[in-house]
Recover the amino acids of this structure.
C-alpha cells in the first residue's frame, strides 16, 4: 500500500500512539484486501466500538479494552477523541427500558459507562441500525465507513453513498484517522450489477419486499444484482426490508432498481453497458421457497413475542401498528415489542403513538433489538416478526422458533396469541 | 500418497497444520458462529452444530452481518478460533476477520479448495507463501488408526 506523507506521519506516531495503532490496523487490513491506498472519510458508523461486554474479556481500563478489542493493538496508550464525524450504531440495551429487557442493574451501569465513554470521545450516540432515518443521510458519492450490513446496502444503493461493510476494528480505526482502504464499493467500476433478477410477481407489502430480498441475496451472494419488472415504486420501509434481507441470506452490499435507486435510470446503466453474468427469474415458486426458508424454524402456533422494527421502524410503521391494533389488546401471555430509533421514538411519543401502543399492551423501545441485545421475554419459545432479517437471526441466536409474515399477521398474532399467517 | 498442493495468495500469519472443516456454503459470522464456543449456529447451514475451533476453516465466502470480524476476534480471545482460514471470495468482512484472527490465511487458489479439500483432511497452510498441502486424506486417517 502506498501512504501519503500525512498518512505515513500518522503511522509513525506523529499524532500519537492511538492514531498510529489505528493506521497500522488499516494498513494490515488494506494489504489483505489488496487495496493500493487509503481514502479520506468523514462519516463513520460503528457498532460496539466500545461496550461493556468487551470488559468481560479485556478486563482492563477502558482505553486498554478499546485498544485490544477495537484496534487489535497491545495498547498502553490513551484513546483521544475521534477525528472523523462518527456515530454509534445499534447497541445492547435500551437505556430507558432496560428493566423490560431483563438487564441486571450492574450490567446496566457498565453499559451506561461505556456509552458515556463513547460520547466523551465524540461519537454521536444515535444507537440505531438505521442512521439514515435519523439525520445521518449521506449524499451521493460520499465516502463513508459504515458497519451494519442493512445500513450499508441502503446508503450504497438508495442514496448512492460509497462504503464497504466495515467491522468493529476498521470502523474504530477510521474514526481515529479519517481514513479507510480505497477498495470495493469505493471504486466506481465495482458498483455495476452482474446479476439480473427479473421479477414476475407483484411485490407490494413489506413482507413481499423482504421475501424478494431474501431470495435475491441467496442468488446474488457477494455480487450486485439489478431488479426489473417491479410494479410499484417502493418507499423507505420497503427498501429497508429488502436490503436487510438481501444482506442476510447473502452478502449483498449494493443493488440497483432502475428508476428508483441512485445510480441507475435504466437496466443498461445498472449493468454498466455489459451483459449480466447471470439472469434469474423471481416468480411464484421463488417467492414460496423464500417464505418456506424463513419459516423453517417454527412449528408451534402459540406466540410469546411479536417483534416489529428490524431494521428499526419508521414513524409511519409505528403508526401502522397502532392502526392495525385499533381498539384491540395484546393477548395475555404474549408481548408486542416495537423497536425504533430514539429520535423517532420522541416524535412517536409526541404524536401519541407510544400511549396507543402501551394502552393495547405493547411496548415501544429503542437503542437495541432482541438479536443484538440477546434478549426475549422470560420463557419465550416462539417469536413472530415482519422482518426477514430478524426471522433469520433470532432463532439461531436465542434458540427460539420464529415465524415470518406481514405486519398485519404479526399484529393479529399479538392480539390472539396465535400464529395464523400464510403466504397468500 | 501425496494428495496435492494448492497455490494462491498468502495473506500472512505463518504456517500451521490442522484438520480441515470444509463447506461449500458462505459462512455468517455474527449470528452464524457462537463467539463463545466457535459453533456454527446458522439454521439450515450444512455445518450447523459443528465448531470452527482449532480447525482449518475452508469456505467460499463470508456473508451477512458486519459483526464478522468482531466474532472472529472474540473466538480468538476465547481460545475457540480457527487454526487457519482458506477461502475464495475476498471482501471486507473476511479481510478484517483475517487481520484480527492472527492465523495463517490463503485466498485466490488455483483450484477450488472447497471441493479439493474435504472435511477431516489433514492440511498444511502456509499463509506467507500462499501454499496449501493436503498431507493426509481423511480415509487414510481412518485406515491408519
Amino acid at each position: 500500500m502506498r501512504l501519503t506523507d500525512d498518512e505515513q506521519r500518522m503511522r509513525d506516531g506523529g499524532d500519537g500512539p492511538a492514531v498510529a495503532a489505528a493506521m497500522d490496523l488499516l494498513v494490515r487490513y488494506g494489504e489483505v484486501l489488496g487495496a493500493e491506498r487509503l481514502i479520506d472519510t468523514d462519516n463513520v458508523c460503528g457498532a460496539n466500538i466500545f461496550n461493556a461486554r468487551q470488559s468481560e474479556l479485556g478486563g482492563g481500563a477502558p482505553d486498554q479494552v478499546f485498544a485490544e478489542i477495537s484496534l487489535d493493538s497491545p495498547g498502553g496508550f490513551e484513546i483521544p477523541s475521534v477525528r472523523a464525524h462518527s456515530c454509534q450504531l445499534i447497541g445492547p440495551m435500551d437505556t430507558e427500558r432496560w428493566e423490560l429487557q431483563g438487564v441486571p442493574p450492574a450490567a446496566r451501569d457498565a453499559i451506561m459507562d461505556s456509552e458515556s465513554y463513547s460520547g466523551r470521545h465524540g461519537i454521536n450516540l444515535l444507537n440505531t441500525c438505521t442512521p439514515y432515518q435519523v439525520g445521518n443521510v449521506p449524499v451521493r458519492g460520499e465516502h463513508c465507513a459504515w458497519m451494519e450490513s442493512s445500513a450499508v446496502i441502503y446508503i450504497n444503493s438508495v442514496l448512492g453513498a460509497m462504503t464497504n461493510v466495515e467491522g468493529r476494528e476498521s470502523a474504530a480505526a477510521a474514526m481515529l484517522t479519517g481514513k479507510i482502504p480505497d477498495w470495493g464499493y469505493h471504486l466506481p467500476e465495482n458498483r455495476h450489477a452482474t446479476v439480473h433478477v427479473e421479477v414476475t410477481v407483484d411485490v407490494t407489502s413489506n413482507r413481499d419486499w423482504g421475501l424478494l430480498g431474501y431470495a435475491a441475496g441467496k442468488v446474488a451472494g457477494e455480487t450486485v444484482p439489478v431488479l426489473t419488472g417491479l410494479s410499484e415504486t417502493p418507499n423507505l420501509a420497503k427498501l429497508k426490508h429488502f436490503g436487510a434481507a438481501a444482506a442476510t441470506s447473502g452478502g449483498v452490499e449494493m443493488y440497483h432498481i432502475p428508476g428508483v435507486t441512485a445510480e441507475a435510470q435504466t437496466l443498461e446503466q445498472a449493468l454498466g453497458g455489459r451483459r449480466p453474468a447471470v439472469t434469474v427469474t423471481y416468480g411464484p415458486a421463488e417467492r414460496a421457497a423464500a417464505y418456506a426458508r424463513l419459516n423453517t424454524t417454527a412449528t408451534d402456533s402459540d406466540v410469546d413475542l411479536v417483534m416489529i422494527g428490524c431494521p428499526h421502524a419508521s414513524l409511519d410503521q409505528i403508526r401502522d401498528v397502532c392502526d392495525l391494533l385499533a381498539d384491540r389488546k395484546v393477548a395475555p401471555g404474549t408481548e408486542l415489542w416495537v423497536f425504533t430509533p430514539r429520535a423517532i421514538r420522541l416524535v412517536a411519543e409526541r404524536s401519541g403513538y407510544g400511549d396507543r401502543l402501551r394502552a393495547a399492551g405493547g411496548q415501544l423501545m429503542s437503542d437495541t433489538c432482541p438479536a443484538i441485545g440477546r434478549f426475549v421475554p422470560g420463557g419465550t419459545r416462539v417469536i413472530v416478526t415482519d422482518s426477514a432479517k430478524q426471522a433469520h437471526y433470532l432463532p439461531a441466536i436465542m434458540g427460539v422458533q420464529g415465524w415470518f409474515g406481514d405486519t398485519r399477521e404479526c399484529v393479529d398474532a399479538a392480539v390472539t396469541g396465535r400464529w395464523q399467517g400464510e403466504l397468500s | 500418497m501425496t494428495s496435492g498442493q494448492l497455490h494462491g495468495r498468502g495473506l500472512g500469519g505463518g504456517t500451521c497444520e490442522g484438520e480441515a472443516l470444509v463447506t461449500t456454503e458462505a459462512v455468517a459470522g455474527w449470528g452464524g458462529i457462537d463467539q463463545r464456543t466457535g459453533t456454527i449456529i446458522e439454521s439450515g447451514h450444512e455445518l450447523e452444530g459443528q465448531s470452527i475451533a482449532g480447525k482449518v476453516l475452508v469456505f467460499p465466502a463470508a456473508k451477512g452481518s458486519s459483526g464478522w470480524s468482531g466474532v472472529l476476534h472474540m473466538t480468538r480471545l476465547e481460545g475457540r478460533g480457527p487454526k487457519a482460514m482458506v477461502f475464495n471470495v475476498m471482501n471486507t468482512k473476511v479481510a478484517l476477520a483475517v487481520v484480527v484472527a492472527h492465523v495463517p490465511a490463503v485466498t485466490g487458489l488455483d483450484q477450488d479448495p472447497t471441493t479439493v479439500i474435504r472435511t477431516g483432511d489433514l492440511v498444511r497452510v502456509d499463509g506467507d507463501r500462499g501454499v496449501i498441502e493436503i498431507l493426509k486424506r481423511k480415509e487414510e486417517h481412518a485406515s491408519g488408526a
Q: What stands out?
A: The first helix of chain A runs from residue 5 to 11.
